């Protein structure tokens, strides 16, 4: 049986399915619609969060930032009033360097997977972040500490330990394609498809599942929770799409990926943005992105507000 990746890799089928290839994405889309001077707005998570908060886009609250090695020893003071938190590199990608602490007491930190860490191990992790171990290009980085997201009960049976997120591809301000990424035991609670997470394609009008894959192969049942993936539906779907549409005004990027989580108390929240979102979303949806972008170019109106663009997608997507 051919995997979807193998199916799409055959030239005639790839073209017929409207698949957007890496070269076409880089030269015909990213280089054309994303000015390089704007990349820092999404490559730096501190900048992204600050900018999002300035226009009232919902994001996890920032607890603190550690910029220098001599500040690492003080991280306990920063999290003193927080029993749970997340530490991440400001310039990281693909979930690298993200440390989720669900509880700590007496200098014992418990991660999302239940692993116990001591003060020295957390100290070393933050120090590694600053040294650039997880950052884009290995550049010196800063450590962002933010509140832990409590994912909605609506997804309780669909993700293994980790927080599921929705990736929305936004083109010229219009949400063009979306998927939900679900953590698995193999992915160690991370929602990254290349690490073994499940990708679920989402209908743009309804937020309901239309396809699901694991390691590029179609699946119907989550490998760890046994949930029926085709019953998945994202609540507050319009609000998810609106965050992606607003990110266009916020950054000026004509092509971007918005990662959004659904907190049980605070609703949809923007986790991060990406100026070079990957193309696995096509495999998750079982269809190509090129046709969706072409449709926006030819048929979608210009000059609409973010709210109007989202409503147009919900009625015509």
Question: Can you put this structure into words, describing what you see?
Answer:
It is a single chain. Strand 4 and strand 5 form a beta hairpin. The mean pLDDT is 90. The protein is built from eleven helices and 13 strands. It has 317 residues and is an alpha+beta fold. The two termini are 31 Å apart. The protein is 30% helix and 23% strand.
Topology overview:
Layout: H1 4-8, H2 11-16, H3 22-33, H4 40-43, H5 45-54, E1 62-66, H6 75-78, E2 85-89, E3 99-105, E4 108-111, E5 116-118, H7 119-131, E6 143-146, E7 165-171, E8 174-182, E9 198-202, E10 209-214, E11 217-218, H8 237-251, E12 255-263, E13 267-274, H9 280-285, H10 290-299, H11 306-316
Antiparallel strand pairs: 1-6, 2-3, 2-6, 3-4, 4-5, 7-8, 7-12, 8-9, 9-10, 10-11, 12-13
Helix pairs in contact: 8-11
């Amino acid at each position: 049986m051919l995997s979807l990746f193998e199916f799409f890799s055959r030239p005639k089928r790839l073209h017929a399915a409207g698949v957007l290839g890496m070269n076409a994405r880089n030269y015909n889309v990213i280089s054309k619609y994303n000015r390089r001077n704007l990349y820092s707005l999404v490559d730096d998570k501190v900048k992204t969060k600050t900018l999002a908060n300035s226009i009232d886009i919902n994001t996890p609250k920032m607890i603190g930032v550690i910029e220098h090695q001599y500040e690492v020893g003080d991280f306990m003071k920063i999290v003193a009033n927080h029993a749970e938190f997340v530490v991440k590199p400001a310039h990281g990608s693909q979930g690298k360097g993200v440390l989720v602490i669900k509880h700590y007491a007496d200098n014992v930190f418990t991660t999302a997977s239940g692993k116990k860490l001591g003060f020295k191990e957390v100290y070393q992790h933050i120090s590694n972040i600053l040294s650039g171990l997880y950052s884009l290009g290995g550049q010196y980085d800063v450590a962002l500490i933010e509140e832990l997201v409590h994912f909605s009960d609506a997804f309780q049976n669909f993700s293994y330990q980790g927080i599921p997120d929705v990736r929305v591809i936004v083109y010229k301000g219009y949400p063009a394609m979306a998927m939900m990424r679900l953590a698995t035991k193999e992915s160690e609670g991370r929602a990254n498809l290349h690490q073994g997470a499940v990708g679920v394609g989402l209908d743009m009008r309804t937020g309901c599942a239309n396809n699901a894959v694991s390691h590029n192969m179609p699946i119907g049942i989550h490998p760890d929770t046994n949930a029926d993936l085709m019953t998945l539906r994202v609540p507050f779907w319009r609000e998810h799409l609106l965050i992606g549409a607003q990110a266009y005004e916020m950054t000026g990027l004509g092509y971007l990926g918005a990662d959004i989580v659904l907190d049980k108390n605070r609703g949809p929240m923007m986790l991060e943005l990406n100026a070079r979102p990957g193309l696995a979303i096509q495999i998750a949806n079982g269809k190509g992105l090129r046709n969706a972008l072409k449709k926006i170019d030819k048929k979608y109106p210009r000059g609409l507000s973010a709210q109007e663009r989202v409503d147009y997608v919900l009625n015509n997507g």
